[in-house]
Amino acid sequence: MKYDVVIIGASAGGLTTAISARKFYPDKSVLVIRKEKVGMVPCGIPYIFGTLKSVDDDILPVKKFLEPLGIEILTDEVTDIDPKKKVVKTKSGKEIAWEKLVLATGSRPAKPDFPGVDLDGIYTVPKDYEYLKKLRERVEEAEKIVIVGGGFIALEVGDEIRKLGKDVTLVVRSRLLRSSFDPEFSRIVEERLKEAGIKIVYGQVERFLGNGKVEKVKLLDGSEIPADLVILSTGYRPNVDLAVKAGLKVTRYGIWTDEYMRTSHPDIFAVGDCVEHRDFFTGKPHPLMLASTATFEARIAGANLFKLQIVRENRRTIGAYSTHIAGLTLAAAGLTEEAAKREGFEIIVGRATGPDRHPAKFPDTSTVTVKLIFSRDRGAILGAQIAGGKSVGEMINILALAIQKRLTASELYTLQIATHPLLTASPIGYQILKAAEDALAKLRT
């Protein structure tokens, strides 16, 4: 059998590529090959432990997205790609020819090689339905749960498990959310987690102890933490095995692509977690695994499979994040203050704090703190961090656009906005404008 477009992978990147390909090339045949019979909504996985009633509540409705568009789905595992013959081979013995191929093979959890890591009761957090069902059962049975890691997944999983009344300890090597936030925001989330009842231990794991089943986590300083269950959340690795076998250019960060998501083979594209991403400001490769980034890349790939229709003006990745932990929303985009200084930028920082409703007596009011990082030379925005209520989730998208368009502190200060007492901060104290104002005042001194 032959298709115009074959996509390997059916998570956020694969689905979005398929939908975009159908929209831009309605006469082309599209096939999505997925290894898993049941897919998960990646960003929803932490919530299967508390907010959602079961793992089934987080199932990704692949057929609902694709079948109404006439996109075919094959559940099988691709084992080989022949770039010369333009054929993929599957585990069941099928050979499928393609005109354009898209790799959306995602990522898998990194599993550190600590002594005792193979003891029963030690888990990672993959996008695997059956595995997650078993993990959820073990979480319900356990009382003392240790989570190793200080990133988004570790914090979200820990916060969800503590809602079940479990004894949760986070083991953090450095500080919370270090790659995305500056220290003052790490302290904000640390305080909130401690208030919620989560223990935070700073240190490095030496080994796991137990007789067949994990019983303790031993740290390098000699201290031991009792554990009925351990969850490792120490990062993810790109799934690049197929790309390597096919002879595509692959780096330690993932599959190399150009600005239109074309790999080193002109008819093979790649999107999402399996791809090497490059920093928006420096061009340096860096690990970035976000569904929002995957769908952004997928729209670029899907639209440009057969001809360049959508010009990608910004050829690198900003990295825009948001999370909601223990009632606190955190969001960031672009460079942190630490990262900007490390890269050699001369910067100015603007800050603002205030309520996100006006007057602040409304019952759902939250205090929002905004930090903006600007270059000193021309005042262009380099990064943003926000903490507060749920309004933060969309505020960061305004700032992500500002970064993409390289807006200045002056342009943000004069941004024309809509406000409403029940929905936003006061127009007098709107935090993005006030943080820009703070930076402008410093630029003129």
From TrEMBL:
<dbReference type="Pfam" id="PF02852">
    <property type="entry name" value="Pyr_redox_dim"/>
</dbReference>
<comment type="similarity">
    <text>Belongs to the class-III pyridine nucleotide-disulfide oxidoreductase family.</text>
</comment>
<keyword id="KW-0285">Flavoprotein</keyword>
<feature type="domain" description="FAD/NAD(P)-binding">
    <location>
        <begin position="3"/>
        <end position="295"/>
    </location>
</feature>
<feature type="domain" description="Pyridine nucleotide-disulphide oxidoreductase dimerisation">
    <location>
        <begin position="328"/>
        <end position="424"/>
    </location>
</feature>
<keyword id="KW-0274">FAD</keyword>
<dbReference type="Pfam" id="PF07992">
    <property type="entry name" value="Pyr_redox_2"/>
</dbReference>
<dbReference type="InterPro" id="IPR004099">
    <property type="entry name" value="Pyr_nucl-diS_OxRdtase_dimer"/>
</dbReference>
<dbReference type="InterPro" id="IPR036188">
    <property type="entry name" value="FAD/NAD-bd_sf"/>
</dbReference>
<dbReference type="InterPro" id="IPR050260">
    <property type="entry name" value="FAD-bd_OxRdtase"/>
</dbReference>
<dbReference type="InterPro" id="IPR016156">
    <property type="entry name" value="FAD/NAD-linked_Rdtase_dimer_sf"/>
</dbReference>
<protein>
    <submittedName>
        <fullName>FAD-dependent pyridine nucleotide-disulfide oxidoreductase</fullName>
    </submittedName>
</protein>
<dbReference type="GO" id="GO:0016491">
    <property type="term" value="F:oxidoreductase activity"/>
</dbReference>
<dbReference type="InterPro" id="IPR023753">
    <property type="entry name" value="FAD/NAD-binding_dom"/>
</dbReference>
